[in-house]
Amino acid sequence: MRLDAKALRYMSNEDFRVLTAIEVGSRNHDIVPTPLIAQLSHIRGGGVNRYISDLVKRKLIASETNSKYIGYKLIYAGYDYLALKTLSKRGSVVSVGNQIGVGKESDIFVVAGENEEQVVLKVHRLGRQSFRNVKRKRDYFRQDQSPSWMYMSRLSAMKEFAFMKVLHEHGFPVPTPIDQNRHCVVMGLVDAFPLRQIDEVGEPGKLYSRLMELIVRLAKYGLIHGDFNEFNILLQEDGTPILIDFPQMVSTSHANAEYYFNRDVDCIRTFFKRRFGYESVLYPKFRLDANKEFDLDVQVAASGFTKKDQSQLETYMEELGERKNEGSEAEESDEQPSDEEFVYSDDEGNDESDNEDKASGDEQVDDDNSDDDDNYIIEQDRLGNTVRRRRTPGDDK
User: Fold this and answer.
1) pTM: predicted TM-score of the whole model, two decimal places
2) Is the pLDDT reported for residue 81 higher than 80?
3) First to last CA, the chain
4) What does the alpha-carbon distance between residue 82 and residue 154 come to, in Å, rounded to a whole number?
């Protein structure tokens, strides 16, 4: 998903007040009604409708209709802007550069931080991998009285930043944590390559030992990475491994700690045998080598990422793993867009048409939901209110 921050500089404080109002209203409403948006944003009169219309045209929010009213919901693009606005105020992100990576659950960008230093912005986008399930059961978490995708993305970012900060403070080879807001994490830029991109190393046995020692060292500090593989290990020129991606990290006191520990070990053994033709009979075992000596898991809990947050995120990760195993190999290999990316997938490469729309100044209302009912039109009346009416023969002329 693109992160186009060009419009950020042209947005007013009122635009962000409306975005924030929709974010707050989404805690109790799947679709936030206009009167509630006006109340939360403290924008009196009919002025709120103009700001809502602008945000819809910029595709930062989406309009939806239920049986009672027309309302609006925040989508990932709008959530991106709220996070970037906050990070910009703090000086953590000054400008946004190129995208350097894309994962099943995140996008990675190079950005300029304080003093124009290049840093990394990781945007968590949970839900993208399971798009088919989201399409079929749009309110997957709400059916079980659980949070939305954006809330889960926020928890994922909070967890990653908390673990990265604790690990960095205790000398583990991880990127330097800089800042976090909502679903975004800012970290130092590491001059290294993903292990999956490396076809040959001088001493595979030495690297194998370093990685196994890192798994054991984490366990002695009370932590298990949970996704320790070639995709989440960077290798510097001098052969130093850098560990990234911590949303699946768990405590050694977790009920399934031994399973996660052994899975991390097996991932490295399998990769080294397949890629480098290296196989060793020596490898760590949870019951023998994972003797806890420090309590970094407790320190993470004290940092603000609570057991409740951890439980919610673990439930998501477990469900994600089950759905991944149920899918075919073809489905697993396809990069699935998030819900909002699918709706606006035709935006890629259409910058010229977007500029023409902005230049014309024509009023547009996002009606992506019209596919469900072509007999209705969503438009604005003379007072600027968004209304929904039945289509007439004259509308087709």
Assistant:
1) 0.74
2) yes
3) 36
4) 12
